[in-house]
What we know:
Layout: H1 2-9, E1 12-14, E2 19-24, H2 26-32, H3 42-47, E3 54-60, E4 65-72, H4 78-84, E5 88-89, E6 93-99, H5 102-119
Parallel strand pairs: 2-3
Antiparallel strand pairs: 1-2, 3-4, 4-6, 5-6
Enzyme class: hydrolase
Keywords: Hydrolase
InterPro entries: DHH_sf (IPR038763), DHHA1_dom (IPR003156), Oligoribo/pAp-PDE_c-di-AMP_PDE (IPR051319)
Amino acid sequence: MKLIGEAINSLEFHFQSKIASMIIRKEVFETVGAKDEDADGIINLARDINGVEVALLFKETEDGKVKIGFRSKDFVNVSDIAQEFGGGGHKRAAGATVAGAVENIKERVIESVIKAFSVV
């Protein structure tokens, strides 16, 4: 439950609230004794918000990387976006792992998602 609370506390909306993003920092995983897989499904909380087309979940890892989860409802192919960051998946669910600071990665990913809306 603490992971969910932390994710919801970090919830932000972008691009006329069509994009929702959340971050779970590595310290949170350590503090609550949770593993990466314990966060599975949290991204769906953001995707299920009315008006949100794309949900993003950024999870910091212990080795200085960020795992990105991408989910979409109807229009945006998140697999294409994940591929830009070395990942992959399906049209509506994808993922990638990127080295770097979560804030910088988040900014770059959101820019890519916004560009994807112009293709739709």
